[in-house]
């Protein structure tokens, strides 16, 4: 009896160690618009977790609360076992350097070259790498990772949509984040380019062992990349499971996502 209990406790603590992001009972409203109504999520180390939800269901709001760009009304948000609401600005900044955020769209700075776009996060997070870093080397390596080393001196306006997305990904990767948050990484891209981005995301995950939270509408993207999925419906984590499990569900609200 005693032994069984100990094993149980040990299992629980190992599990806790492997959770890199956690949201518990998250609420967020804008006036009468109750967007998040008790949303829960756990991202495990090395996992690709996909969150799907209809347009306007609160996916971007959730991810913004997660990185502290937006304040939640209530709920717990833990990043690598730290409650982000309890952290000082400085501690939060250090933690942020470990989280890469690929914004919806690419959000490159239009007036800066590709090189300058990639230099920007390095200058913001000098603490992580120290002052004597070889900026040029890091920039080239990050661009090589996405197959765009030749675009160093181009302006964003000279790049295609898919290339912009890849440069944005390089800009996220340059800080060598432990966790990457992707907000609609394939939206607005043609299916072939979308596939290329998905392959790239997989390569990066394999190369660096990052944990990823991926927000997407794209059922193909979810099928290929997800280890686990959460469907965000009515402001809650309505359904949680593997792609296989959820796509076999008989719940009409869940089925609606997989009808093509
Ligand atoms: N800053 C804000 N002020 C007021 N309302 C907001 C704000 N940001 C988002 N909302 C509202 O919150 C709801 C959820 O928005 P959100 O951007 O999270 O949707 P989404 O699930 O990301 O949709 P999409 O798939 O289109 O990107 C929407 O009704 C939106 O109008
Ligand atoms: Mg969104």
From TrEMBL:
Residues of the ABC transporter domain: 21-259
Keywords tagged on the record: ATP-binding, Nucleotide-binding, Transport
Keyword Transport: yes
Cited Gene3D superfamilies: P-loop containing nucleotide triphosphate hydrolases
GO MF terms, alphabetically ordered: ATP binding; ATP hydrolysis activity
Pfam families, alphabetized: ABC_tran (PF00005)
Superkingdom per UniProt: Bacteria
SUPFAM superfamilies reported for this sequence: P-loop containing nucleoside triphosphate hydrolases (SSF52540)
Statement: the UniProt record of this protein carries the keyword DNA repair: no
Protein name: Phospholipid/cholesterol/gamma-HCH transport system ATP-binding protein
Organism: Tenacibaculum adriaticum
Phylogenetic placement of the source organism: Bacteria, Pseudomonadati, Bacteroidota, Flavobacteriia, Flavobacteriales
